[in-house]
Amino acid sequence: MYGPEQDTPRFSLDFSPLVDRLIDLALEEDLGAGDVTTLALVPPEQKGSARIRAKQPLTVAGLAVAARVFHRLEPRLTFFPQVADGDQVEAGADLAVLKGPVAAILTGERTALNFLMRLSGIATFTRRMVSAVAGFPVAVVDTRKTMPGWRVLDKYAVRLGGGRNHRFGLYDGVLIKNNHLQAVGSITAAVRRARAQVHHLLKIEVEVATLAELEEALAAGADLILLDNMDDAALAEAVRLTAGRALLEASGSMTLERLPRVAAAGVNLISMGALTHSAPAVDIHLRLL
Fold this sequence. Notes:
Elements: H1 17-31, H2 36-41, E1 47-54, E2 58-59, H3 63-73, E3 78-81, E4 88-89, E5 94-101, H4 102-132, E6 139-141, H5 151-160, E7 174-176, H6 178-184, H7 187-197, E8 204-208, H8 211-220, E9 224-228, H9 232-242, E10 247-251, H10 259-265, E11 269-271, H11 274-277, E12 284-288
Parallel strand pairs: 6-11, 7-8, 8-9, 9-10, 10-11
Antiparallel strand pairs: 1-5, 1-12, 2-4, 3-5
Helix pairs in contact: 1-3, 1-4, 3-4, 4-5, 7-8, 8-9, 9-10
């Protein structure tokens, strides 16, 4: 889960019931009692084809989800990807060609494009951030600041953009944050209590805001330490004090311009909630042929 040395499969998407529920909810939201425009204008037997095309440079993410949307509406519709998830394409590139009942193409268009535009937007934004630290031994990771219900997809898109995933939920890693420390009383007590309660395979990470808190977390035996909103000089000093005894994650106030300086400080990880909560959707359209 953590660390630049731990790679994760980047180009696979498990269609769990969660993803299908998300697609079904999206279709239900858009369709309601039915697509009245298409029902009025397009006979169900009419066949045709369409093309999905990028209108700007982007990193592709979500083709399989888009295909799933159309297949949920019409299993006979065929979806032919022209590129693969993770590919970087230029404006004007064909992403997929569809063939089958025109009514299903028109009814599924907006829902499929919504998935593609958001996920490709996250992948494209992540690619920019990762490119800013190319050459440094650091990983850019996401957070739990994802669209509710979309986490598996949002984090999939981050991987396609070259980023790494932080924990998926509250269940797969201990992260002792400032409010936990307020409730418990001290870093030392919190780490000790966590060690006594969780199994030995779970890593323990502690959020700190000062170098004094960093030294307490190191003495307590934290596996990872999140350096929260430290300036560049403090990050460099934290790396010096830690001397490899724990992995260091820099977080807070991260921008494209600042990333190279943070990476140069020597941290292991840079976490950015913006990868999923602020990535702009990209421009993709569908046209009948």
